[in-house]
Amino acid sequence: MATVTFRGETATGRPLTEWETAGLPDRIAVRELIRLRVQDEVARHNARPGKRFYGLVRPDDAETELNGYRLREARRVDAERHAEIAERAFLANGFFVLAGDRQVEDLDDVVDPTVDPDLVFIKLVALVGG
Prior knowledge:
Oligomer: single chain
Low-confidence stretches: none
Number of domains: 1
Strand content: 35-45%
Mean pLDDT: 91
């Protein structure tokens, strides 16, 4: 079983988040890595629901803030729904994933965490007016 480090960064390389997750298989699809990351984020949020959510993608009915999202009210986030949002965001180039020194481009790409234990998620921000 492998351990991966999930890291979130801005497009300029500024670190946002970092944590490790253990017990992964030696080969895992990017789709499952995204879902795992989202489930971890949602579990942390749901343990102490608040009006702010810090994660990879924006939950339904939330507004974007600096480094996170503001919910209209303190509430729990649905992990399955949020994983679906994250998959669609990946497919729409809302963020990209680096495994080691390569960019993974498809949800079905397979990563070997024993070889590439550092996974970097880089969120892209839409430009104002363009």
